[in-house]
Amino acid sequence: MAKVAILGFGTVGSGVLEVLRTGAQGIARRAGEAVEVKYICDIRDFSAHPDAALFVNSIEPILSDGEVRVVVETIGGLDPAYYYVRSALESGRHVVTSNKELVATRGAELLRIARDNGVCFLFEASVGGGTPVITPMYQCLSANRIGEVLGVVNGTTNFMLTKMSREGLSFDEALREAQRLGYAETIDPSADVDGVDAQRKISILASIALGRHIYPQDVPARGIRTVSTADIDAARQLGYAVRLIARMACPQDNVLAPTVCVEPMLVPNGCPLAHVDDVYNAVLLRCDMLGDAVFYGRGAGKLPTASAVAADVADALREGAAIHDSLFWDEALPLGEGRSCADKARGDWYIRVRGDGAVPCLESVACPGARAGLLRARTEAEIDALRESGEANGFAVENWMRVLA
Prior knowledge:
single chain; 405 residues; alpha/beta; six-stranded parallel beta sheet; 15 strands
């Protein structure tokens, strides 16, 4: 019987315990042996919990117990999660995590440590919650070159945009509803609404697709704070939906300068991502052999996320270090100050402006209290220049969004 330790007993950690128990038979069949939780590490007091005997408040008993073969990290953040994960790998334990910040920031290093110690480091739940996308990328699609990744990967912002579209809620009203339902943090929701969560997730997917580490700080991210119901209505008139898109694009002749970014975009109604609503996630992969493949499902939630963690536990026990024959990427340095993976290509843009000054070549649609429409074949630098010139020319650009080609 394989013994497992869970680090952190919050929403996901408690879900992992539940899934490993309720799905014990299927997990044992997939892992090739029964799986049992021996420790739960959490600094809080769980003396009144039915499983109080499992709890420890330090990782040391886990690292000193030779029976523990898999460590599941669900603490989140970098401190102390990085130290715990690194220590577990160096002690010869497989590690499974749902920690997107850890993987995005330290993934290449931890993959190397895992391989050096003959164990595996798995993180399916770090992107898409319970929706599988990482495993298909390195297993099922290994014969393909993935030239583009497009994702709706943050359920909170997608829920908010859905509410704004369907019910006419303002950004602030939609945020309060997301907070009321527990989708958004009540104190500081910036990781979601400013694109930080999506930034980390696309860094992971880009690292897998490109085979080298892409750091979150090199990925420009802009969230949905400036999006209004007027923008959503104007986009609808033009045949688009507004979505927060995490994107990686790498033409074959440009492998050293990929585009990796997060921004609100106008998505054409013919694209599957335009129809991803509420808290659901979807990732579209554009492959050279297969063509387009879409992965869709719940991007968060206790049991969906825990199910992905439990599947990784089974894979770790069955495959071991051999899994990193295909799941790996090279370590690399960050790009450095003043450089990023921003999209420098020409494309179409949506803008909303206020004021009477002329905006050359703006293809306008009805927009109460403002002017809105499309500008064709512009670079982001040209859009920035237009914004900066607005005051001198009698207008102000209140919002701007790229049109997904």
